[in-house]
Amino acid sequence: MKRLVIVSNRVPVPKEGLRPGGLAVVLHDLLALQGGMWFGWNGTTSVDAETTPPQIQHAGGVEYATIGLTPAEHKHYYTGFSNSTLWPLMHSLPEFIHFERRELSTYWSVNERFCENLLPLLRDDDTIWIHDYHLLPLAAQLRRKGVNMPIGFFLHTPFPAPDMLAIAPDGGTFLRDMLCADLLGFQTSDDTANFIFAAQRTAGARLVAPDTLSFEGHTVRVGSFAVEIDPDAFARTAAEAVEAPELKQLRSSLAGRKLIFGVDRMDPTKGLCDRLAGYDRLLESYPIWQRNVTFLQIAAESRVDVPSYRALRQELEGMIGKLNAQRGQADWTPLRFLTRGSARRVVAGYMRQAQIGYITPLRDGMNLVAKEYVAAQDPDDPGVLILSRMAGAARQLEAALLVNPLDHDDLADALNRALGMPKAERRERWQACRTHLEGCTALGWGQAFLRTLEATVAR
Ligand code: F6P
């Protein structure tokens, strides 16, 4: 079997006794199954990072090759171009885009450095799988250095419509660089269609089959591969967590009130301010829920050096204080907002406890929290998922209450409807959502991508 080489911006090297969560586990498991190496940034900065060779570690049958970033690279490549320009651009949120030309040049040069450091570690029988928006130029850079092994690329974020791409500095170059891979994977068919359209219009690629583009004599396959979770395992974790001390404490503090629950990174794409405003509107428009409901939102701090993330934190702090001060009562705090991350097991328990999963990103590639909320429910007495139409997961979880994340009345109406929804309707909606998760596994997502890559290069 070919060796798998995964390349991503951040590499979560497992530490003694600690296992990373979510997608990191899936990629680790894929590597452990197939044998392989994970290459990328180790999460640290140091002034001599540019001249330090990759550090090689082994854990759980996987080889990890990691490099550091210099403080300037971190500022311009990670905080700057990747997360201040590309991230909001990919999410079609121009109001959060900040662009500095010198950050773009550092973005290219860090990708070059990834390429230079990776090259000596590659073997002829490797299959290379590059991940996400930090590394758009990498496939092209590897090809220019003569790498001719199969290269797949998967974008975890949405792919914007071509007119949004027009505001990307050098958008055409990014498209041409991506077209050097053999397989390009996206989360949804809309993202795939956006890419196909942009590649033809902006990069001059030709569509030679519904899923194949031809560009400068090279053909590249494109397709959607929705990221999945392991619903059965997550359901077990959630059911077990219900008896954990953290859950007992939560239940006793709720004193019989219904629980609305959300969990996200603190990120401008997650729609947190509008989400709070929607909850505030519920309490204003439907006063019957005052004192009868508690909203618990976990928003773990993330990318704290990015100015729009700092501004978000400030705005949220103002909103949280105002909402609790204006709507709260001596013995009732309507909103509990936590910025510390919680253990995955405990989060699964919160999901099972919550009558409502309130997940309203402004835009999201997929949103695995929505799938996890569905998996965590008690089949006999499930909660209701309120989900933004703008999340990739809404393509699959159509039986959720789908909302416009910017429309506070829509959010309030959905919350009111969910809080009062009869059990029969809750079960019917939950069953329809659960059916979409049936038979899917996170590992299956990765294997489907790799199978398609293998078939593509074999044609
Ligand atoms: O959703 C994109 C993503 O890169 C995820 O893969 C990752 O878990 C998350 O953002 C956190 O990103 P960062 O590495 O910037 O902390």
TrEMBL record:
<comment type="similarity">
    <text>Belongs to the glycosyltransferase 20 family.</text>
</comment>
<dbReference type="GO" id="GO:0005992">
    <property type="term" value="P:trehalose biosynthetic process"/>
</dbReference>
<dbReference type="InterPro" id="IPR001830">
    <property type="entry name" value="Glyco_trans_20"/>
</dbReference>
<dbReference type="GO" id="GO:0003825">
    <property type="term" value="F:alpha,alpha-trehalose-phosphate synthase (UDP-forming) activity"/>
</dbReference>
<dbReference type="Pfam" id="PF00982">
    <property type="entry name" value="Glyco_transf_20"/>
</dbReference>
<protein>
    <submittedName>
        <fullName>Trehalose-6-phosphate synthase</fullName>
    </submittedName>
</protein>
